[in-house]
Design a protein that fits this description.
This protein has helices at 12-15, 18-28, 43-52, 74-81, 96-99, 104-120, 132-141, 158-166, 183-191, 221-232, 236-251; strands spanning 2-7, 30-35, 56-60, 86-95, 124-129, 149-151, 169-173, 197-199. The chain has 267 residues and is an alpha/beta fold. The chain has one domain: TIM Barrel (Alpha-Beta Barrel).
């Protein structure tokens, strides 16, 4: 069984098709997914998905790219993250690619997420782009190693991956792993411990090869997992078991919460 560790089923491209998306997950051997919050305004949509479907889970957070949205306080984030179907704090982090480095508000927002995660004892979902040095520095300064988490949609170097792993973070691979120009990322996938790996779609974005150009969805995580298996010289069921076990351990989810699925992925 596979799990999609990061998706956005409340986004416009997916929200109207949730029944079909869930059916496709079953057919692809994907037994669960984490629906990730990017704004406080949309958090109720994310939580509702997790409340309605036992094999979907939610996070609470505000993405670093969103400037003109409700700003989260530590107290508000901690309150949302304490709810029964919320398993993580985030998506949070730093993104200098789109906004540049003159974003003190972004760094302060990131710190508040880490403090909230520490308060409730739940892991972080971290987005970092063109900001790895500051991301790691703030994680260390704020004691993020006390809760750990995941570096989602990872695209950084092996050194950054190892530094994050040393802080108790997992490394999550998206469809980018299958892209032709992602050889440096494939080297990370070959090198880090299997105990530190997750797979994700980040849907509706970043559909993997051979589905590039399509709207991504959780069922497509199978293609990323197959690529990871090929890179490690393993079969798909082995990667599926490992990444699913890692997901359950990180987010403290009982395996019985996942939907039983059949198919070759469980062979």
């Amino acid at each position: 069984m596979l799990v999609d560790s990061h998706c956005h089923l409340n986004f416009e491209d997916l929200a109207a098709r949730v029944p079909q998306i869930l059916a496709a997950m079953d057919a692809a051997g994907v037994g669960g997914a984490l629906c990730v919050s990017v704004t406080l305004e949309a958090f109720p949509e994310v939580e509702a998905l997790a409340l309605e479907h036992p094999h979907l889970f939610a996070s609470a957070g505000v993405h670093p790219d969103y400037a003109d949205v409700e700003e989260p306080s530590v107290e508000h984030l901690a309150s949302l993250a304490s709810r029964s179907r919320v398993v993580a704090v985030g998506e949070t982090g730093l993104d200098y690619f789109r906004l540049g480095e003159d974003v003190d508000w972004q760094r302060e927002r990131f710190r508040r997420h880490i403090r909230a995660a520490r308060e409730v004892g739940k892991p972080l979902i971290v987005h970092t782009r063109a900001a790895a040095e500051d991301t790691l520095r703030i994680l260390r300064e704020e004691g993020a190693d006390r809760v750990g988490g995941v570096m989602h949609c990872f695209t950084e170097s092996l050194d950054v991956a190892n530094a994050a792993i040393d802080l108790g973070f997992m490394i999550s691979f998206s469809g980018i792993l299958t892209f032709r120009n992602a050889e440096s990322l494939r080297e990370v996938a070959r090198s880090i411990p299997i105990e530190s790996m997750l797979v994700e779609t980040d849907s509706p974005y970043l559909a993997p090869v051979p589905l590039r150009g399509k709207i991504n969805e959780p069922a497509f995580v199978r293609h990323t997992a197959q690529k990871l298996a090929d890179l490690r010289g393993l079969d798909l069921p082995t990667i599926a078991r490992a990444t699913t076990d890692n997901f359950l351990r990180l987010f403290r989810i009982d395996a019985t919460a996942l939907r039983p699925v059949g198919g070759a992925v469980n062979a």
